What we know:
A hairpin with a 2-residue loop joins β4 (126-135) and β5. By secondary structure, the protein is an alpha+beta fold. It has 13 helices and twelve strands. The protein has three domains: 9-153, Beta-Lactamase (2-Layer Sandwich), CATH 3.30.450; 229-296, Helix Hairpins (Orthogonal Bundle); 306-459, Histidine kinase-like ATPase, C-terminal domain (Heat Shock Protein 90), CATH 3.30.565.
Amino acid sequence: xxxxxxxxxxxxxxxxxxxxxxxxxxxxxxxxxxxxxxxxxxxxxxxxxxxxxxxxxxxxxxxxxxxxxxxxxxxxxxxxxxxxxxxxxxxxxxxxxxxxxxxxxxxxxxxxxxxxxxxxxxxxxxxxxxxxxxxxxxxxxxxxxxxxxxxxxxxxxxxxxxxxxxxxxxxxxxxxxxxxxxxxxxxxxxxxxxxxxxxxxxxxxxxxxxxxxxxxxxxxxxxxxxxxxxxxxxxxxxxxxxxxxxxxxxxxxxxxxxxxxxxxxxxxxxxxxxxxxxxxxxxxxxxxxxxxxxxxxxxxxxxxxxxxxxxxxxxxxxxxxxxxxxxxxxxxxxxxxxxxxxxxxxxxxxxxxxxxxxxxxxxxxxxxxxxxxxxxxxxxxxxxxxxxxxxxxxxxxxxxxxxxxxxxxxxxxxxxxxxxxxxxxxxxxxxxxxxxxxxxxxxxxxxxxxxxxxxxxxxxxx
Length: 462
C-alpha cells in the first residue's frame, strides 16, 4: 500500500523555483523602479533648475528687462518647457494654464522678493516640476510635466520590467526541466522499491543523477542483491532442514513398520530399538536447535544481564570441557591472559554461546590436536578497552570464503556435508545471534593452531 501523497517532487521543486523566481523578479522590479524613478526625478529637477538659471540670465541680459524676459519665455516654449513671467506689479503673463496655476501668490511674492522657487505640484491630476527665478523685470517660472521630464527613464523602467519578466519565465522553464531531471531517477527508484515489495528480486536501477539520488539508487541495488542472497540462503536452509528431518524420520518409520509387522525377530528387537532411539535423539537435537534459533530471532528474547567476570566463567568452562575433550584424546587449554575481565552480560546466554563454539570445535578437531579457550583484555585507541573470549581449534579450519557466511544457517553445513563431521547446521547461527543479543561482536578467522578461530568481544563493565 502506497503512503498518502503530498504532491510530487517535480511539482514541488517547480513551484518552489517559480515562487523564488517571481519573488526575486518582484523585489528586483520594485527596487529598480524605485531607484530609477528617484534618480530620474532628481535628474529632471536639476535639469529644469539649470534651464531656469539660464532663462533668468537671458532675461537679465537684455537692454530692456521686460522685453528680454518675454524673449526668454518664448525660447523656453520652443524647448517644450511651459513658463510664466511675473512683472514688478505682480501681473502674471503666460499662455500656459499649468504655468499660471503653478505661479501661486506665495511663489509670486517669493520671486518679487528676490528668492528662488523650487518644488513639485499636482495640478489637475498631473505631476509637474516647478522652478522659479527672480529677474530684473520681476520673475520667471518654469513648469515641466514629470512624464515629459522622465520619458526616457520610464522607457528604461519598462524595459527592466520586461527583462525581469523574461528572466522569471526562463526560471520557470529551467526549474521545470531540472525538477524533471531530478524526479525521474527517484521515480524509477520508487517503482523498483515497490517491485521489491511485491516479491520481484531481479531489480536494478541506473545509478545516475545528483550524488544523493545516485546514493539512493545504489542503496536500493544493494538491498535487492542482499534480499536475493538472503532469500536464497533461506531456501537452502529450508531444503537442508527438510532433508535432515526426513532422514531420521525415514529410519524411525521404517523400523517401526518392521516392528509392527513382526518382521524383526525377538533377538534383534534391542538393536532396532537402539537405532530408533538414536534417530529420535538426532531428530530431537535438530528440532531443539530450530526452536533455539527461532526464539533468538524473536522480537524480545529473554536476556538477564548482570556483572560477570569472564575469567571466572572460563574456569567453569574448563572444568567441564577439559574432561569431555580428554575423553576423545583432544588436549584442552584454558588461557586467562588477564587477571579479571569484568562485563555486564547474561552469564547463562554467554555460557550457551561458548558451549556452542566448543561443541563445533570438538566435532571437527581430530584426536591429538588442541582446543584453546582464551580470555583477554584488548585496548582500543581512544575508547575503553574490550573484553575478549576466544575459542581456537586445531581442526581443518575455514577458507577465506567461509568466513563471510560462517554464522549463516546451514552455509557451512551444506558446504562440508560428507567431507567432515557436521552438526545440524544451526549451531554457529545460534552463536551469531547470541552475540548480537549480548551486545557483543563475534568474528571468524584462522587460528594459530591450524584450525578455526572464533573471537567474541564484549564491552568492559562500567
